[in-house]
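User: what does the whole thing look like in 3D?
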Amino acid sequence: MNTNRDDSLGPTPDSPGRRKLLRYAPLLLLAGCDMTPEGRVESTLRSVQSFNDWVQAKVFDREKLAAEYPDEELTPEGGFRVNGYDTDRPDIDLEHWTLTVEGLVAKPGTYTLRALQAYTKKVMNTRHCCVEGWSMVPKWGGTPTREFLRDIGADPNAKYASVECGDDYYTSYDMPSLLHPQTLLCYEAYGKPLELEHGAPVRIVMPVKLGYKSAKWVSKIVVTNDKPGGYWEDQGYDWFAGL
Ligand SMILES: Nc1nc2c(c(=O)[nH]1)N[C@H]1C(S)=C(S)[C@@H](COP(=O)(O)O)O[C@H]1N2
Ligand SMILES: [Mo]
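Assistant: Here's the predicted 3D structure for the full assembly of 243 residues, as C-alpha cells:
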C-alpha cells in the first residue's frame, strides 16, 4: 500500500476488499439510481444495503491489518481534527465514568477506566478516514477490544454489538470487526489521555472502517444477535462501512 498518500484522500481506493466488491458494482450502483415510485426506492435501497453489508462481511479478512505508519508520517498533533454530529464537548463525568456491558456476555456489568487499562496497551499509528473526504494518522493507544471482550466472556458466536455514547450518538458493528486485532477501546492519543473533544475517557478506534464507526465517549456496549443501527446508518449511510 502506498503510505505517502495525500491526507485529503479518503479510503484507500485499491484495497482488495474494494476490488472484490467491484464484481458487485452494478448492484451496488442501484443505490445511486433515481427510481420511482418512492416506496419502491426505499425498500430497494434497504435490500441493496443489506446485500452490500452481506458482501462486505463475506470479503472481510479478520486478520488483515490496516496500514500502520512510522512516527515521521504521523499527522502533527495540531492537525488532529475534531468532528462530531452535534457537540464536541458533551457533559461527561470523567471522575465517575464507567463502561456498561450488556447482552450476550458471561460477565455483564460496569467497568471502570482502570479496569480497561489493566490490559496490555496497544499503541498504533493508523489512518482515520472520515466519509466527508479527509483523513489523518494520529498515534492511538488503548486496550484491544478483543482482549476485553474475551475476558468478560462475550459470546464468540454473537453476530453484532452496538455502542451508546455520551452525546447520544450510537453505532454498531459486526463482531469480527470488533474482534479485529487493531480495534481499540482507545484511551490515549499521542501518548496522553484522550482529550474530551476526541472522546474521553474512552472511544472506539477501528481502522478497518470509516471514521463514523470510531465512536467517541462510549458509555455502553451491547452484544446481540439482532442487527442494530446507528446515528448515520439509520439515515442511509453504509452500515458495514469497511475500508
Ligand atoms: N460519539 C460520537 N462519536 C463519533 C462521532 C460523533 O458525532 N459522536 N462522529 C464520528 C465521525 S463522523 C468521525 S470522523 C470521528 C471524528 O473523531 P475525532 O473528533 O477524534 O476526529 O468520530 C466519530 N465518532
Ligand atoms: Mo466522519
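In plain terms: The domain at 18-235 is CATH 3.90.420.10 (Sulfite Oxidase; Chain A, domain 2). The pocket of molybdenum atom (ligand 2) is lined by residues 83, 130-132, 211-212 (CB under 6 Å).
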